Amino acid sequence: MRVLRRFGGEAIALVLAAVIFLVPFALMLLTAVKDQAQAIDLDFAWPTEWPVVRNLVDVVEARDFVLLRAYVNSTLVTVASVALIVVFASMAAFVLQRRAGRLGSVANFLVLSGLIIPPAIVPTIWLLQALGLFKTMPGLVLIEVAFNLAYAVLLFRAFIAAIPRELDEAAMIDGCTGLSLFFRVVFPLLRPVTITVILTSSVAVFNDFVNPLYFTPGDDNATVQVTLYNFQSQYNTQWNLLFMDIVLITIPPLLLFIFFNRKIVAGMTAGAIKG
């Protein structure tokens, strides 16, 4: 009886997952391969024509190949942001874990505040303007790092808690101190959680829509998510091109998740158990 209940619960969960995730994905794919007239219906009807190549070319060539520039911008922002997140979060987590005290408690409170308190758009724009970084890619990189740093610090700290302090002491006896101690001894041991942080942060930064929209307006600094506006207007929306654009944007994160989902789960689970 218990086996039947467990099997029934798993079957219900699979059905719900299919309805929540696969049905919208199927609608997106069907609409992306239709012509503009049939795509307006937004239904699951089979396409009468298959203008796949034409839709793909129209999406790529829209607004002087803005999608290609957006892919380059998104790639640069993602790589730079994730690299800084990994370095800063791992170093901060190591210090917070190894040096407990009042200052550490304040730092922990600030880290948790970064997860709880929503970002303020207007003050952030004022700050970027004062620094001369508004509407620039370096400014967007700093924004992505700031907004994703707290989550990465928590993951790294949970993993570092399992590394014995005796290892630090042995390395210090051998002459390693400061950055040498961290990068030569501790950081290589963080490989599982580092992979998790890289994958989760990459998907979050690549899929970010709000920050590029507010902080880097304009086609020159457009990211892939902002290109969704290319096919929408006040009076008309080209649903077939819009969904084809969504398909092209979804492919990189989807492939990343399919091939590395086990590493993501393994890194987060290891950190939770060791913390």
UniProtKB/TrEMBL annotation:
Keywords, alphabetical: Cell membrane, Membrane, Transmembrane, Transmembrane helix, Transport
Superkingdom per UniProt: Bacteria
Signal peptide segment: none
Cross-referenced CDD domains: TM_PBP2 (cd06261)
Transmembrane segments: 12-33, 76-96, 108-128, 140-160, 181-206, 239-260
Membrane topology: Multi-pass membrane protein
InterPro entries: MetI-like, MetI-like_sf
Pfam assignment, any one: BPD_transp_1
Compartment list: Cell membrane
An annotated GO cellular component: plasma membrane
GO BP: any one term: transmembrane transport
Family the entry assigns: Belongs to the binding-protein-dependent transport system permease family.
PANTHER family hit by this protein: ABC TRANSPORTER PERMEASE PROTEIN MG189-RELATED, ABC TRANSPORTER PERMEASE PROTEIN MG189-RELATED-RELATED
Protein name as catalogued: ABC transporter permease subunit
Organism: Nonomuraea phyllanthi
Lineage: Bacteria, Bacillati, Actinomycetota, Actinomycetes, Streptosporangiales
